[in-house]
Write the structure tokens for this entry.
Amino acid sequence: MLLTRALRRVASVRPAALRSASTAAAVQDATAAVVPKPPPDPKTVADMRRPEWWYPKARLSKRTIIYHGGPTNSGKTYHALEALKRAENGVYAGPLRLLALEVHERLNDAGVYCSLFTGQERREVPFATHASSTIEMVSLQERYDVAVIDEIQLIGSSERGHSWTRALLGLDAREIHVCGALDASELVEDLAKKCGDDFVLKTYERLTPLKPLPVLKGWRDVRAGDCVVTFSRDDIHAVKRLIEEAKPGTKCCVVYGTLPPETRAEQARLFNTEGNGYDVLVASDAIGMGLNLNIGRVLFRRVLKYAGNAPSEARLASVAPEYRDDARRLGQLPADRALVKQIAGRAGRMSTAFGEGGGGVAAMDERDAQYVRKALNAKPDKVTKAGLFPPSELLAAFARETKIASKTDITAVVDAFVNVCQIDAARYALAGHVELKKVATQLDVPLPLEDMVTFCAAPCNSSDRLAVAMLTEYARARARGERAGPNVRLPKHKPRTLRDLHDMCGKHNVLDCYLWLAHRFPETFPESDAAMAQKRRCIGLVAAGLASRRLQLPEKKEADAKSVAAKLVAAKKKKPSAKKRGRVVRGKRSK
């Protein structure tokens, strides 16, 4: 009966179709119009158990995955880049813009034409055979002779791990050289076999020794080539002030995550250049990767790191007993031991003045010194699961095929997807969705799902109110179909206070986001040249602020820093002098 009605509908509504097509085809069209399709199974749409098949081009040929594994300063990345230089064509993919820029410059200096592709910048070199990019920007459409994926252990990151998984599974290359700690070697080997690829493991040992040193007694014992590490940006500036007051004539460079990448690179250049007075570096964990630094000793001011919220009792149970009171009272936890080991490993690079004697690592109190020593000897936890996040096309298909109240409410779409998705839990774990939902909630703009996914991936500091507010304005302009400029006002004078400096870094982040969006939505954000000019001026103002010895610090931070300095002096007076113990306290920087 249903088929008869369908045929009648065909005859009355689509006579031309019947005349021009076969009866069978017309019947199929008509029945499709009147016979309802069975509702799609959400689990079928959200099936992510075989993500390697998202990249059919890469599955057409067998690849060779070469794992260069070892600690910091072991030469693993050097050997991978040498293979890239020899290749007919190739690509480098790393976690940071600074690393992509460094490889871009290194290859071009070696006579290998190499373009640069990051989220904010594209330098296309004529006749280039190679490309250097950030991990998110690496192209999967090209066929490469050799590809290099740096810091492969980040494949297990809950925030960005899916970008390494995408590159590892999706790059169409004869050889893929992956570099990083050995923690992820077994996982990468398993994924290579899953893809039908060959796997080769090459291991490396540290090229120079790394020695634990006695506790530092005071700021006067800081010497040329030292890097003092602390995990608070305000504390970084306070320590800088204390060292420069304790050692007149000494100037300190600073490096931390919210500084513009160009500023970090310039601070590293100043520190690495001998004879200019910038002999000491004060830094956060931002030195863990991305910068080549001539460090002789790494000195941990403290190993505590702000945890965001007061840790739960379950989390406290895993914290070393001597740090639990601080964790409860201050909301600070000791930095992960793998991170401490990675930072300490920056001391004594082979190609620097400190390479021959090796590097040293110390702390400024005995409790932290013991923690650092344990971190150096600790075996790293293995990376057992690769981060995985659905492509925006898959999320969009899921939203279309399932009954979700609002197809533009990405938090609802992601929540529904996470609830029903199927995943190979032995090899993969969902990554990136928590941060995506956080940014989407902050934006709260009715954008098409694909556009919202793009906006949520913008390099916006989600803890900076100005950056989030401006990203929201950009999203609204996109939703309204309007054009938008950067809309950032820069002051005429350099930063006078630490608050001014932080605000300037926030404005740089806004301009960075605008340039990033301009590459993806040029019709909405057409003023990239103006944004780039403002960005350069912003970088200059930040540099001027850092160079100023009159930068006003918050009173509490300065008082806290002086209190710690007083305690160090008091502790030193209680001990016998270094001369009596027959130990050399200070050394000179090697030439």
Observations:
- The longest helix spans residues 498-520.
- The mean pLDDT is 86.
